[in-house]
Write a structure and sequence with these properties.
The chain is an all-alpha fold. It is 32% helix and 0% strand.
């Protein structure tokens, strides 16, 4: 599991090098990898880099309720 993948790019010229290297590494890996992105980065990268085509399955987790109620797991 790789969290905070939204830090793999910068909005500047050449800002996708780390992201491209990361995707190349994932393409060569023979394991299942779970990545975590914030919603804003995902929407941006899906639009400008077609990131959603790189990942065959996406799961969106809804935010926790803000009313303070607790549910047991």
């Amino acid at each position: 599991m790789i969290e905070d993948c939204q830090h793999l790019y910068e909005r500047r010229i050449g800002g996708f090098e780390a992201l491209s290297a990361f995707l190349d590494e994932l393409a060569n890996a023979d394991v299942t990898v779970v990545t975590g992105w914030n919603r804003y980065a995902w929407v941006y990268l899906a639009a400008v880099q077609a990131l959603d085509r790189e990942f065959l399955v996406t799961v969106e987790i809804q935010p926790f309720p803000k009313n303070g109620s607790r549910n047991s797991c």
